[in-house]
Amino acid sequence: MAEIQLKSLAHSYSRHPEGPGDYAIRQMSHTWHKGGAYALLGPSGCGKTTMLNIISGLLAPSEGDVMFDNVRVNELSPKDRNIAQVFQFPVVYDSMTVFDNLAFPLKNAGIPKARIEAKVEEIAAILELEPVLRKKAKGLTADEKQKVSMGRGLVRDDVSAILFDEPLTVIDPQLKWKLRRKLKQIHEQFNITMVYVTHDQLEASTFADKIAVMYDGQIVQFGTPRELFERPNHTFVGFFIGSPGMNLIDVSVTEQGVRFDDIDVPLDDGQKQRIAATGSSNIKLGIRPEFVQLTAAPADDTWPCRILDVEDLGTYKIVTLQLGEQRLKARIDEDQMISGDTLHVGFPRQWLKVYVDEFLVDEQTEEAQS
Amino acid sequence: MRKVPNNRAWWLVLPVFILVAFSALIPLMTVVNYSVQDIFGPNAAYFVGTDWFREVLRNESLQASLGRQVVFSAAVLLIEIPLGIGIALLMPTGGKRASLCLILLAIPLLIPWNVVGTIWQIFGRGDIGLFGRFLNEIGINYNYTADPVDAWFTVLLMDVWHWTPLVALLCYSGLRAIPQAFYQAAEIDRASRWAVFRYIQLPRLKSVLVIAVLLRFMDSFMIYTEPFVLTGGGPGSSTTFLSQTLTTMAVGQFDIGRAAAFSLVYFLIVLLVSWLFFTAITYPDRDK
Amino acid sequence: MTHSKRRGFGITFYILLLLLPIYWLLNMSFKTNQEILSSLTLWPQNFTFHNYAVIFTDPSWYDGYINSMIYVSINVVITLLVSLPAAYAFSRYKFVGDKHLFFWLLSNRMAPPAVFLLPFFQLYSSIGLFDTHIAVALAHCLFNVPLAVWILEGFISGVPREYDEMAYIDGYSFPRFFIKIFIPMIRSGIGVSAFFAFMFSWVELLLARTLTSVDAQPIGAIMTRTVGASGIDWGVLAAAGVLTIIPGLLVVWFVRNHVATGFALGRV
């Protein structure tokens, strides 16, 4: 087990990168602590797999260092880093039996036979592979193959970390849930550092204690699922986490704060100063649909808006609203009734976030937050 | 692949059927017809039943030629298959250099077989050939026209030169079809280079190796032109293989009945051994 | 990366060895017979085109090349024309005797050409095709058609059936679908089949020589003329040999991009 530290890491697949567009991973630093269960969440093509391959050593980063327990391992092969990785699509050694597949990484490390057998049986039991243990891997179903693939990562309990690259993509939903639980269980049992790459927020939050959200070659936020939900650090986190994503409204700066249409939102002095300091005009307000307040009657700090659509999703409803030029989504309880075609909308101040150049500008200072 | 029962598909295979029947069935019938008759002239033929077959099977010069043929084909397979795999593993995995390698490797395959014989006839000569001259200069007494061992060595070397590229090209395309993820997984699993070869590359080369082994067996077992040009089957009959024996018998001595019986036995041996190879290589695939 | 350097060295070394005999032939083709016989020189001291001039000025020489090209081309065309529909049928349909037919076809690839020498000679003589290009082309179909059917069947089976059905739904007639949609999809399969048909027809001599005498005589048979009363004309023999390598080089140049995928014959 190890603490994995990425120091000013950057990677480009082109040999002579010109400009940030050529980078799959833009310069960043990050630490994965010992024994944690982490998820790396982001859309396709954001650099998740690249980062995973850099950590495991399949790929050498173009810039920066990879440190395992404060030792630079850039030049070490996956073998010497002693790391396990499970790939998106099942990789099984066709000509071997399931048992031999699971035993393969252990045999290669020269572990005594008795211990291999015990370890393989243990993992096969957890993954429910016992019935097929003596079968050739070639004839397995896709589910079983992926379980074998995962098993090869899990049999090694001496590893620095286990990396999962969207391991459940080819598995059907029911089993997916079960396997996710299994992984969590294994993590609790062996306390191995695990990094789990996925583009599914649900998968990330059920597996991980802390989630790193990756966007455009950078980790834009690293936090618990709750932090990501309540205090998205970046508009992308707001948009990507939650369903539907955060409402984002373009605003302009005024004396008291910011303004869109004819609605003024006051900001505190610290925020105003920092917005002014950036000199940027790319300013957005964000509020999650869950926190948008809807009332039938007007009140202080509410604005009338038109109802465009109501989607009933069984346990809750999504209301689409037209407020001036803006289109907003609000999520309300199943039993809250909506009538007529006009409602009054309010934005609780504590849930209204300000973003400058896509990054959060909070009320408190940033030091106090983290 | 899901196939639809449709007997009208026969119309699509009819041209092939007619063509191959014309080129194979009629001549084969002729051969069968000859093999059971003794022919003295245009209108003088007698039915002799299986006499020719019995004689062919007992004929010592044919047995000797069959023996040489078996040794030759075995040597060809034992050398060319491993060597071809090795070369495929050495080849660049992509880009311009890979293309260049492929083109250069393919050259020997596209040279007419008599020219292959000519090339080695010249190359191996002690006076005007680079190879023969070189061996003699460094003190090895080498003369493929006089010494049976040298002749064998040269014929074998020629075949290795000529056909190993085919095995290499087949294996190369087999290797390219292995997804990168397998190599990555093996690296993660701490597999040694040998283990990567044994458990990833070799199993996935199986289907191309079946093709390579079958093609190399068939063509080496039918070899005629190259050794005929190179050594003429000599010295003595040391490099006379089955096809040459047969051709001499049929065209040279016009010994048609015996040649026909011999032809059929020859054909059956190729079929039988090909079937054995095919079954032996693909057998372990069937899950017990 | 010392490992990849070693690999590069290994493959370079092998290819050099592979090219050495060919270089020697090329070297000799630019020498005079006197130079060839008098001393061993690593490159031509008196560089001459004389040997090539002999071939290009004598119709009985260059006709041999033309004859070979003609029957090889006819063979490739026939092979592809009959094999494509048959391979399609074997890949897509079940019909009476399909398996037996397929194995019977393949078994012909295993027939030693020497077996068919005499019957072929008689067959083609009796129907008046002896010493014609078409006779050699048809005889070569014996081993090229089975191989082509087998290769193409592999490639066609790699194309999902849904494409065929989609085309029917879109109102394509079968021939139009086959030519417009299907053939472009199995391009590399066709390229590889043509390559193999060319290769085995171009290099074969035993049947080609037996079925011809003058009008359709292949270059391989003409090359034996270099053996004269005064010994072998090495220079001209070498030049003739070099010229037989060039068509193959051109063909492999055209299919070079399909070689890596195509040589797996659609069966990996």
TrEMBL record, chain A:
InterPro entries: AAA+_ATPase, ABC_transporter-like_ATP-bd, ABC_transpr_FbpC, ABC_transpr_MalK/UgpC-like, Mo/tungstate-bd_C_term_dom, NA-bd_OB-fold, OB_MalK-like, P-loop_NTPase. CDD domains: ABC_Carb_Solutes_like. The keyword Nucleotide-binding applies. This is ABC transporter ATP-binding protein. It comes from the Bacteria. Pfam families: ABC_tran, OB_MalK. It comes from Marinobacter halodurans. Keywords: ATP-binding, Cell membrane, Membrane, Nucleotide-binding, Transport. Residues 4-241 form the ABC transporter domain. GO terms for molecular function: ATP binding. SUPFAM superfamilies: MOP-like (SSF50331), P-loop containing nucleoside triphosphate hydrolases (SSF52540). The keyword Isomerase does not apply.
UniProtKB/TrEMBL annotation, chain B:
The keyword Transport applies. Its main location: membrane. Residues 66-277 form the ABC transmembrane type-1 domain. Gene3D superfamilies: MetI-like. It is found in: Cell membrane. The chain crosses the membrane at residues 12-32, 70-90, 102-123, 151-172, 207-225, 259-283. Pfam families: BPD_transp_1. Keywords: Membrane, Transmembrane, Transmembrane helix, Transport. SUPFAM superfamilies: MetI-like. It is a multi-pass membrane protein. Belongs to the binding-protein-dependent transport system permease family. This is Sugar ABC transporter permease. It comes from Marinobacter halodurans.
TrEMBL record, chain C:
It comes from the Bacteria. Its main location: membrane. This is Carbohydrate ABC transporter permease. Keywords: Cell membrane, Membrane, Transmembrane, Transmembrane helix, Transport. It is a multi-pass membrane protein. It holds the Pfam family BPD_transp_1. Belongs to the binding-protein-dependent transport system permease family. MalFG subfamily. Residues 65-255 form the ABC transmembrane type-1 domain. PANTHER family: ABC TRANSPORTER PERMEASE PROTEIN, MALTOSE TRANSPORT SYSTEM PERMEASE-RELATED. It comes from Marinobacter halodurans. It is found in: Cell membrane. The chain crosses the membrane at residues 7-26, 69-90, 102-121, 133-156, 177-203, 234-255. The lineage of its organism: Bacteria, Pseudomonadati, Pseudomonadota, Gammaproteobacteria, Pseudomonadales.
